Amino acid sequence: MRRWPQRGNEMNERSLLPRMAAALLALLGLIDGVYLTLHHYRPSINLRCPVGGGCETVQGSAWSTLPPGGAGVPVALIGVVGYAVLLLLALVALQRERIGPVAVPPLLLLVASGGLVFSLYLTFLQLFVIGAICFWCAMSALCELGIWLAAVVDWRAWRRESAIDTTVDAPPLRREAAQSR
């Protein structure tokens, strides 16, 4: 548990475990994305699919780049950038509550939500358009889901803490009204 400084002499305890989990999952996703990106740019790097055989099918499809068709940016490279941003945010969140005027928990949740939506889109393409499942892509989607869940847990704790802070600073009548809700 880390103690977050509060106004006055009070200290609030909030677990850093969600932020640690987000950082670890972002690191795993980054490694996954780098592996798939290396395979995209160097097909001589053997792509090992531990379960099934859909990795080559998915990675060789027109949908492995944006825009689709082969001449665009590899989806795996987009994942590398996304996971790098998430990793950086999660690591900063272990040390700071704010980046300038911006609170870290809502920012982490916003970026994680974008990543989750993109992962859901790619999973839909694998299932219903390409017709094959890539193990590494599925692992990336699970990492993204885990990061999003950790960000939601952290955001909810931050919101509870923020609500407590506003009632502590409120005048007595407003504080009593806020606590009776």
3D structure, described in words:
A hairpin with a 6-residue loop joins strand 3 (65-66) and strand 4. The chain has one domain: de novo design (two linked rop proteins) (Up-down Bundle). Mean pLDDT is 86; it is low at 3-12. Helix content is 67%, strand content 9%. The protein is mainly alpha-helical. The protein has helices spanning 17-41, 54-59, 75-93, 104-130, 135-169, 172-180, and strands at residues 2-5, 11-14, 65-66, 73-74, 98-99, 102-103.
Features:
de novo design (two linked rop proteins), two-stranded antiparallel sheet, elongated, mainly alpha
Question: What secondary-structure arrangement, pairings included, does this model have?
Answer:
Layout: E1 2-5, E2 11-14, H1 17-41, H2 54-59, E3 65-66, E4 73-74, H3 75-93, E5 98-99, E6 102-103, H4 104-130, H5 135-169, H6 172-180
Antiparallel strand pairs: 1-2, 3-4, 5-6
